[in-house]
Design brief:
Largest sheet: 4 strands, antiparallel
Strand content: 35-45%
Number of strands: 7
Number of helices: 0
Shape: globular
Strand order of the largest sheet: 1-2-3-4
Distance between the termini: 21 Å
Low-confidence stretches: none
Length: 128
Amino acid sequence: MCFSDDQGLNWTEPERVQSWSVSPFPLLLGDGRLVIIYMRRNPDPTGLYCIISEDEGVSWSPPQVLRDDTLAAGPRGIVDGGYPVAVPLSDVGIPDARILTAYYWQHDDLNVPWYGGRKYIAGTVFRI
């Protein structure tokens, strides 16, 4: 993350918010909280996670698991997913505190003629 104190004219050097992230997606909620949703592929535990800041990114919550069924990755240990995007459902007319995140996901599958499994678009709805 980078910060600007002068409306975007100058920025701090980038700092890592957390480690082992793949394709993080930041989301600013209406109450001022900042949520980062990301996929962790390696090392274990893998899965889809989020971290939350209530002080404009100065400090962060411990990672919260949104989806962890990659722990049973299958016979070849294929774990793949990422590129999340998210929207508060209140932004699309649903008046509650839920967030919808969509991303790609893959399960290990021996029944396909290629290495790994089928990739597909998945979604998770959660509250923080």
